Amino acid sequence: MDFARYLKEQEMRPKTIVGYCAVVNEYEQWRDTLPDSSEIITQLQILEYKSYLKTIRKNHPKTINRKLAAMRKWIQYLQAIGQVKNIITVKDEVLAPMEQLREPKYLDKNQIRNIRKAIEKERNDFLRNRDRCMTYLMLYLGLRQEEMLNLELLDIIRTPGKQKVIIRDGKGGFYSELGIESTELRGAIDLWIKERSKSRFAESRFCFVSQKSEHAGKRAAVMMIKRVSKTSGVEFTCHQLRHTFGKRIIDKTGNIKLAQELLRHKHTSSTEIYTMHRNEELSSVLRILDDII
């Protein structure tokens, strides 16, 4: 069994597998430059590699920790196949508090308004209705780009008294059911489903089809963002729509646990970043200190 197959059997995502394998290759190349190079991995080698990433490669602490996470998995793999029998500890680089909690970028009300207007200006009915539905699913339910693109038609339940979107394989393999409570989102879904029914790919199991394929992939999302950004004058990403959803939930309810559940975060620490104040808000407070001290 090779490392990539080991990771795949642990149901890790393809992008993560590629990244972890790249880290192992980097480690092995570094190890081969050592004067007393040995294929037997040791605790000392891990410490030296960590120092190399920090002082020579000058990697950011978060980058170092991602690479160390890959090394942990690799050591587990080597132990599983019997190549490593001793216990090796891989400790993360300690992050400063402000590095641990970095404010996400989100959109204000004016930017959202401009994005809405830009979508409605699209002359192509197919693109307008699909762009609206894609955008609103991320903005009103906090779907990640991949979750939105992988939605199947059967995952959108629109029966009386039961309107929800089912995420069958979210980040971390989580299953979630999210209620469709927003009238804006309901309208966007209805218009897209009606438009989709005219497509030659109407029988596709995927919710989002393209004009040339039965499954709209990442390129469709990228082109949607590019198209709407150009018309609206607002530079944004799919993940910023999700960040905006999270920020609005926190601002409205002040309930981190509720936001954590809606955002489908495994750890509360991932949700806490939405409680941070924007830099301009902090600056405005500092500017009035002369008047209050």
From TrEMBL:
It holds the Pfam family Phage_integrase. Residues 1-79 form the Core-binding (CB) domain. Residues 102-287 form the Tyr recombinase domain. Keywords: DNA integration, DNA recombination, DNA-binding. GO terms for biological process: DNA integration; DNA recombination. Coiled coil: none annotated. One of its GO terms (molecular function) is DNA binding. Belongs to the 'phage' integrase family. This is Site-specific recombinase XerD.
